[in-house]
Design goal:
The structure holds two protein chains of two kinds. Chain A has five helices and four strands; from the N terminus they run H-H-H-E-E-H-E-E-H. Chain A is of the alpha+beta class. Chain A is globular, with a radius of gyration of 16 Å. Chain B is globular, with a radius of gyration of 15 Å. Classes of the chains: A alpha+beta, B alpha+beta. Chain A: InterPro entries: NO_sig/Golgi_transp_ligand-bd, TRAPP-I_su5, TRAPP_component.
Chain lengths: ~170, ~140
């Protein structure tokens, strides 16, 4: 267990450090993504060992459920709020929804960077877990405030598996 | 009952945040006047701490007049939070320590805030401050 304040200061400095080395939002998100990937890659073994007595999940859907529940619960203290499948011709597409991302709790993004979502770090974690489980995927964090204003900082992690061999395996 | 205005001044005496709440009858202050008021209060606070008859004075904590009351809270870092309200407004010290907590959370933990600079774009801080003032006026 790590205190939320300690984590928030560290995460804040991670963002400042990353920001001082880039000039645009895209590369900044890429840096956060890369940092998260390292966390995710380590979570695969940890979660398999703790929750599945060492067995690996081999189905994409099951890995995603594991991420939504165990990984999020271990890292953030609560499961992600939703996991949904989307039909897409060129990819296996899933959305993981977090109504109030813990990493963004104290962060207010300035208006001139309103496209930025520091949940890119979490997207990196999801990507890392999937890659470790054998499902190389693209994961992007999107700001998706809900319509009635209850969760203005709701974030959706869009997971897309495009690799042909992986998709064939899922069929 | 109402809270009039809220100010944060940094340890150098510069105004870094100000917000008016109640539509009070007196003339509204302009931005420059708010800046001057912030710096002026910083001076008074420092002088009061120096001229106090006891050692280790914490400076001005409260100023009360017939129509207005000013309550100040100074954090250990030297950042000062003060609020003007009507004299009947109770528990302003609780209000200020709560705002200090919001400042520590939503301003200092925000990677896009530069220390000692004016607080801009910290939407979550402003939202929590507004909610707190609304809960006091209710």
């Amino acid at each position: 267990m790590v205190g939320l304040s300690s984590f928030s200061y560290l995460f804040s400095e991670l963002i400042r450090h990353s920001q001082s080395r880039v000039t645009a939002i895209g590369p900044l998100e890429a840096k956060l993504d890369a940092a998260g990937f390292q966390v995710g890659a380590r979570m695969v073994d940890l979660i398999s060992l703790r929750e599945k007595s060492g067995k690996r999940e081999v189905k994409l859907k099951n890995v995603l459920v594991l991420i939504q529940t165990s990984v999020f619960r271990t890292l953030f203290g609560k499961s992600a709020d939703a996991l949904a499948q989307y039909s897409s011709d060129d990819a296996e597409e899933y959305h993981i929804v977090d109504n109030e991302p813990l990493v963004n709790r104290y962060i207010s993004v300035p208006r001139d960077m309103s496209d930025l979502n520091c949940g890119a770090f979490v997207a990196g974690i999801v990507k890392g877990v999937l890659a470790g489980a054998g499902f190389p995927a693209e994961v992007v964090a999107h700001n998706t405030p809900d319509d009635d204003g209850r969760y203005p900082y709701c974030t959706t992690y869009q997971v897309r598996v495009t690799a042909v061999d992986v998709r064939a395996r899922e069929k | 009952m109402p809270i009039f205005s809220f100010y944060i001044i940094n340890k150098a005496g510069g105004l870094i945040y100000q917000k008016d709440f109640e539509d009070y009858k007196a003339n509204k202050l302009m931005v420059n006047e708010h800046l001057r008021l912030g710096g002026f209060f910083h001076g008074i606070h420092a002088i009061a701490a120096q001229v106090a008859p006891v050692a280790g004075s914490s400076g001005v904590e409260e100023i009360e007049a017939s129509t207005v009351k000013l309550r100040c809270f100074q954090a250990l870092t030297g950042t000062k939070f003060f609020v003007t309200a009507s004299p009947s407004q109770a528990s302003l010290d609780v209000f200020l320590s709560q705002v200090y907590e919001y400042y520590a959370d939503f301003v200092l933990k925000n990677p896009f805030y530069e220390l000692e600079q004016p607080i801009q774009g910290c939407d979550k801080f402003v939202a929590h401050l507004d909610a707190l003032v609304a809960s006091l006026s209710a």
